[in-house]
Specification:
The chain is of the alpha+beta class. The chain contains 1 helix and 8 strands, in the order E-E-E-E-E-E-E-E-H. The N and C termini lie far apart (about 105 Å).
Length: about 170
């Protein structure tokens, strides 16, 4: 069992969120990984945040069974900057968690790099398509104006050709 703690800035103290299990969940489509932790008895969410390439986890000062990290968490239904700490029953479990956390963060660097390249390509394509669409719209507008002018000229010519009505 892991014991998650959240640092309460207002009270300037650590607040326990219960005991439970922590999971790293990878999204099948995006490849993004989030950390999800639930209390063992109530299944209430204790922590729910993405693992980003910029994140790092470190041993809590003076306790080799605990580790700390910063994250933008959504466990309480709103996105907040939080400082987390988890206490493990053994040093080995803590080290294993820290290694996994760092590996996930490193893998996200690669994902973010690929995602950035793909996004840049899509933006470039989008801007080209927008220009193309804008040209098409301009051409259509010009065609409509030209047709309207031709119809107006034709109507004027017809009015001039029609015989005057005799009354």
């Amino acid at each position: 069992m892991k014991h998650p703690l959240r640092f309460d800035k207002d009270g300037n103290q650590w607040k326990e969120r219960g005991a439970g299990t922590v999971k790293f969940l990878k999204h099948k489509a995006t490849g993004k990984v989030r950390l999800l932790m639930r209390q063992s008895k109530t299944l209430k969410i204790c922590a729910n945040h993405l693992i980003l390439a910029t994140m790092s986890v470190q041993e809590h000062a003076g306790n080799d069974k605990s580790c700390v990290w910063h994250a933008r968490d959504f466990a309480d239904g709103e996105l907040k900057d939080e400082l987390f700490c988890i206490r493990f029953p053994s040093v080995e479990n803590c080290k294993s968690f820290m290694e996994t956390f760092q590996e996930v963060a490193e893998s996200q660097k690669k994902e973010e790099g690929e995602e950035g390249s793909a996004a840049a390509g899509l933006l470039e394509k989008l801007s080209v398509e927008e220009k193309t669409d804008a040209k098409k719209k301009d051409e259509k507008s010009e065609e409509k104006e030209s047709k309207t002018q031709q119809e107006t000229k034709a109507d004027a010519e017809k009015e001039g050709e029609e015989p005057a009505s005799s009354a």
